[in-house]
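Suppose a colleague, Dr. K., hands you the sequence of a protein chain of 430 amino acids and asks what its three-dimensional shape might be. Before reaching for any lab equipment, you can write down a predicted structure in token form. Begin with the sequence itself:
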Amino acid sequence: MRLRVLVICVLAALGTVRAAVAQEQAWVQLEAQPSLTEAEDRARTLAAEFPEVAGFQIAEGWYALSLGPYSPEEAAGRLSDLKRAGAIPRDAFITDGSTHRQQFWPIGRLAVPEAAPAVEPAVDVAATPEAAVATDETVAEARASEAELSREDRMALQQAMAWYGVYEAKIDGAFGKGTRASMAAWQEMNGYDATGVLTSIQRAALLANYQADQAEFGFETLTEAEAGIEITLPMALLQFDHYEPPFVHYIERNGSGLRVILISQPGEQDSLYGLYDVLQTLEVVPAEGERRREERSFTINAQSASVQSYAYAEVKGGMVKGYLVVWNPVDAERMSRILPALKASFRPVGDKALDPGLVPMDAAARSGLMAGLEVKTPKLSRSGFFVDAAGSVVTTVEAVAQCGRVTIDHDTEAVVAAQDAASGIAILTP
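The predicted structure, expressed as tokens, is then:
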């Protein structure tokens, strides 16, 4: 009887050792393939560069290719280094292996390393499907470890979830229903059970992936004292160029194709609306895309086949402040992570704005923008004459033929109200 009890205790202890070893492991998942054949082909290719590549079947018939196993700290460092070098996909992430099922690469390797191979009963335990998959904390254990987090630790988790688009509330360190829903969304997005409570390994993976992204883009929170603007910018992709009131120009770095222009000037609604009109004249603000001008702010989301841009400005306290971001549409995936960070971090600070001097706002704006941006020029210009008090203009049909946008005196948008090919006359109304 004593011998039986002793064997059971040894087995239980061995199971505890296995769980502890498994919990300390982490992988950098690179990609997933829909079939075993495709996954094995990719594994052979990756193995030439990464000897530690491993392949696992995961949920719903997909096959994951990962690097590892590492300790969580080593995985975080490996992810950051490889992303910075551009050696792995930008959406690679850290996983604790809890979604791994049967291992298919390298052939014959077990999903969890053998522990204490000299003890025969351990082989039987490892042979069961439950023992082959790494176990993580229970929800109760995760709550207990979570309770030890500082307020700063909790805020860091919220910030990381906001970066991945699953958290939109205030960064305050309070874990209420909204934060729990965000945690569940992040878990589901990364193949974990959506419990709404992150385990220790999941928290480490979330923060490591976030920090790797931050390192890749070189995010820095800048305070432009002269402009009275605080904003987080990806300085690995940008560099400061020059001031030209009411603009602060940041141009691309190393061919990144990204540009940011901060906007700051004294003014009220008329200045805001004037800025809105001026931006429409820029080559980097295509005619296509959504526009929204409200009483105290505006947004422009413009796009074409070759350029995409986003502009935002608001008026508050006698000052107009905002920004314009310009990028190549081929970088849509990268910008899906960068633009939310800019939007969330933009904040007018202080009571100071760049002073455009005595030059009227529209002239100053054109002068400033010409220093770093090309202004759209008309494809064709023709004269006309006003025919009524409403500002209707009679001109030639040639002046408006095949035009996507028509203006009167460059500034006033107009529509073609009528045209007669026989007489060659067109009537424009503002």
